[in-house]
Write a structure and sequence with these properties.
By secondary structure, the protein is of the alpha/beta class. The protein is built from 9 helices and 11 strands. Helix content is 35%, strand content 14%.
Length: 300
């Protein structure tokens, strides 16, 4: 399924905080939207994976997303490895987003900064014609158990000519991730319905703000969607509220919640709106009619 806009979130809740308003607005405009979480946030001080998953489902409903995936790269393990790059490319080539929203490259959490680098590289490689990910017709029941059985009976796979009788010529000892169906060594997808062989990269890549501020390239008016954004953020009760007296973090302090409100309020006022979300794009912005474009500056 093609998704027009995909926000990539280092942890479940980051996209809600950084670009939840824009996702709601674009959905209301008729675009298909989605979030791809890179990790399960399993190392968070508060809560646990099961609770976080339930909270994510609630936030997903509030945002009215068409797609929500989790690549499970591992909390504090977001690196530019071949394995991680292939997992991101798999999403890009299957869902072919026009717009990708990613964290800004400088931020408080190393996972946020590493996500930027991983995603930027993955987007570029995804557009390369010869980057080695191919779709392979393979029986859908192929799984780890079948692979183990083949290894046990490896002698049966050798023909009289000394060559493998393996129908699809797959090295059964290759480094296969059976959660994603990717042969990490050869870049082969073992599933039937997943990666398209045709290269693709998002037309637009925009960075959203998390902890550290940057000078935005533009600000999106989210006035009509701010209340739903906050509702989606509050779905993560284990993260933004103190469940236990001794689990004090910046995220579950009153200062973080006030920061989200005052930040969106501040940037909204910059464009004469009640609430706004700041974004950064590395490309130059084209304006055909400055008089029409800047009419909002005359609003009182």
């Amino acid at each position: 399924m093609s998704i027009d806009v995909i926000a990539f979130s280092p942890h479940p809740d980051d996209a809600e905080f950084g670009c939840g308003g824009l996702l709601l607005k674009l959905k209301d405009m008729g675009y298909k939207t989605g979030i791809v979480d890179l990790t399960k946030g399993e190392l968070s001080t508060s809560g646990d994976v099961k609770t976080r998953s339930q909270e994510t489902k609630e936030a997903t409903k509030i945002l009215k997303l068409d797609l929500r995936l989790n690549l499970d790269l591992g909390d504090c393990k977001i690196f530019n490895s071949r394995e991680n790059i292939l997992k991101v490319i798999k999403v890009i080539r299957e869902h072919r987003p026009i717009l990708a929203l990613i964290p800004y490259h400088i931020d408080r959490h190393p996972d946020h900064e590493n996500s930027y680098r991983l995603l930027k590289e993955s987007f570029f490689f995804s557009g390369l014609l010869k980057f080695p990910i191919i779709k392979l017709n393979r029986q859908s029941h192929l799984n780890k158990e079948a692979n183990d059985n083949v290894n046990k009976d490896s002698n049966k796979n050798i023909g009289k000519n000394g060559k493998s009788n393996n129908k699809n010529n797959i090295d059964v000892n290759s480094n296969i991730d059976f959660n994603t169906g990717i042969d990490l060594e050869n870049g082969i997808d073992l599933e039937n319905k997943l990666i398209e062989k045709k290269p693709y990269r998002p037309n637009i890549v925009i960075c959203y703000m998390l902890h550290y501020q940057f000078k935005p390239s533009f600000i999106v008016d989210i006035t009509n969607y701010f209340h739903l954004k906050i509702k989606a953020c509050k779905a993560y009760k284990s993260q933004i509220y103190r469940s236990y007296p001794n689990t004090s973090t910046f995220i579950n302090s009153k200062y973080f919640r006030q920061m989200i409100f005052t930040r969106d309020k501040f940037y909204g006022l910059q464009i004469k709106a009640d609430f706004g979300e700041p974004y950064f794009i590395e490309e130059q912005i084209k304006i055909d009619d400055p008089l029409k474009f800047f009419t909002y500056l005359n609003e009182t």
